[in-house]
Amino acid sequence: MEQEQMTNMPRIGDKAPDFEAVTTIGQMKFSDYNKGNWVVFFSHPADFTPVCTTEMSGFAQEKDFFAANNTKLLGLSIDSIHAHIAWVNAVHEKTNVLFEFPIVADIDMRVSKLYGMLQPGESETAAVRAVFFIDPEGKIRLIMYYPLNVGRNMAEIKRVLLALQTSDENKCAMPLDWQPGDKVIVPAPKTVKALEERKNSDLEMVDWYLAKRSL
Questions:
Q1: Catalytic residue, candidates 52, 117, 118, 174
Q2: Where do the domains of the chain lie, and which CATH numbers do they carry?
């Protein structure tokens, strides 16, 4: 069973598995929610737990950033819709942070298994801290996995989202530690003619295969 689940885990480049589920904003079909937008889809182990509360609050507090970058948020845990609503209410009352993005109620673990969020070596009943970056065409572009006891890094989540979007828009690649405003890597030449053109260009040349430019 474990081997079968691992084999069926979505990978980078795969079409994001579609599903319908109950969420904190009502019934949802994922493909409808995703259409025309990027989606950052993330799982957490359980409601009313400390690390998860800090993470979900972090996503909620960055809602303007994600909205400005054509990105919707979607959470999930293996809890009931009633537990989700109670947790949303409790966090709002205690901290004034409201989780306005939908949270999937996955009590039957169906969506968790579909996305490989339930990993028996870590836990058979709680989803790991997975993050899926899904583009407007419904393709999985980047996946992060964290164990139950380590919270995610919001700065890195924001950085890689912008890196993916900038790369798509400019047909380039991003070097180590790329930040918005940094130079990007131009694809290497594939013909002798392209190589000669590169040598005569104004690109920042480290070597013929590694050249950078400003956007």
A1: 52
A2: 2-169 (3.40.30.10), 171-213 (3.30.1020.10)
